[in-house]
Design brief:
Helices cover about 35% and strands about 20% of the residues. With about 350 residues, it is α/β, with parallel strands linked by helices. Helix 7 links the parallel strand 7 and strand 8. Magnesium ion (MG) binds next to helix 1.
Length: about 350
């Protein structure tokens, strides 16, 4: 994000902990810190990738943004207005402006509603247009997501569509309200590669036409590189690295990001790309509760990493990393000059 660009959506030190009870024992389970003081900003028309392994807190972050859940700490604001405590018409307006596309369109679409009913439902809820205008909007948005001619699809039900078509309908349902922010939670994880590429292009096209800001949640770094302006890497609820997408993929600074890059399959490359080897083959024990979250798995960890956790520090404008080594290297090797591009 350019320094002068105003963020549309801002998360400041947002935390969410889950406490659950064991079914078999009466005791409470150990609480899970799903998000730990996460701060992020998304600019107007920006696509920010949120990348991390399973259980790292990506969906939790998305659910807090769309207000399916509330954070225990921190502030989320849209256009500078905190969303905590929104009620009545202001809450309804927020729900129109911020939409979510879920991983599994089968679960997010009501099987008893036709495609026409599914996509016009949010318009009805928000009292937008009359019946005829709503139908017109549905036809237009179906064309936008590549379901053409739309008349062929509007009277079908979700089970009469392929997985890729269902996800297009889910995108159409989110976009028909012309939202300011869309959280896309692994929208292609159930699709094959060619369908996924089509969905990425639809999201890019939507961004260009509607100027919508997108939080794109994924496991897939290659997809994030293709689609996103910036990438934030999350590990066990904390942001480890955030920088322009090309920077994260080509010059990852955090050992965890490097391990993710190493794990990418590399097909058709003449010579094997050099590996970072930043991941320990056998995990070590955590030194203390205050140690770096990645300490157990980090091949580069030193004694200091076992004692204290680095905070997310700015290496250069737009480029932040939570790692003592990255800080040391950027100061020692003066890499900061090369590493930062504003978007
Ligand atoms: N309702 C809940 N109750 C208890 N724990 C939860 C709840 N929701 C999430 N968690 C826990 O919070 C952590 C983060 O979960 P989350 O679903 O955000 O991860 P994720 O990054 O989206 O994972 P995935 O890539 O598998 O979708 C996990 O350890 C998960 O078990
Ligand atoms: Mg998830």
């Amino acid at each position: 994000m350019n320094q002068h660009q105003q963020p549309v959506l801002r998360l400041e030190n947002v935390s969410r902990t889950y406490r659950s009870r064991s079914i078999f024992k009466r005791r409470d389970r150990a609480p899970v810190r799903a998000l730990n003081k996460v701060s992020l900003e998304i600019a107007d028309g920006e696509i920010l990738g949120l990348v991390g392994e399973s259980g790292s807190g990506k969906t939790t972050c998305g659910r807090l943004i769309v207000k399916l859940e509330e954070p225990q700490e921190g502030v989320i604001s849209l256009d500078g207005v905190p969303i905590t405590g929104l009620k009545g018409s202001r809450l309804r307006e927020y729900r129109r402006k911020v939409q979510m596309i879920f991983q599994d369109p089968y679960q997010s679409l009501n099987p008893q509603l036709s495609i026409l009913e599914s996509i016009s439902e949010p318009l009805t809820i928000h009292r937008i247009g009359d019946r005829k205008q709503r139908r017109e909007k549905v036809l237009n948005v179906l064309r936008d997501v590549g379901l053409s001619p739309p008349e062929r699809f509007i009277f079908r039900y979700p089970h009469q569509l392929s997985g890729g078509q269902r996800q297009r309908v889910a995108i159409a349902r989110a976009m028909v309200l012309k939202p300011e922010v869309v959280v896309a939670d692994e929208p292609t994880s159930m699709l094959d590669a060619s369908y996924s590429a089509q969905i990425y292009n639809i999201l890019l096209d939507m961004r260009d036409r509607l100027h919508v800001s997108i939080l794109f949640i994924t496991h897939n770094l290659a997809a994030a590189r293709y689609l996103c302006d910036r990438i934030a890497v999350i590990y066990r609820g904390s942001i480890m690295e955030i920088a322009p997408a090309a920077e994260v993929i080509e010059r990852p600074k955090h050992p965890y990001t490097q391990a993710l890059i190493d794990a990418l399959p590399k097909f058709g490359m003449g010579e094997e790309r050099s590996r970072f080897n930043s991941l320990l083959l056998t995990e070590r024990e955590r030194a203390s509760i205050s140690s770096c979250l990645f300490f157990e798995r980090c091949a580069r960890a030193k004694e200091r990493c076992g004692r204290e956790a680095p905070s997310l520090g700015c290496l250069a404008p737009g480029c932040s990393v939570a790692c003592f080594h990255a800080e040391a290297e950027s100061i020692g090797g003066n890499k900061a000059d090369q590493c930062c591009y504003g978007i």
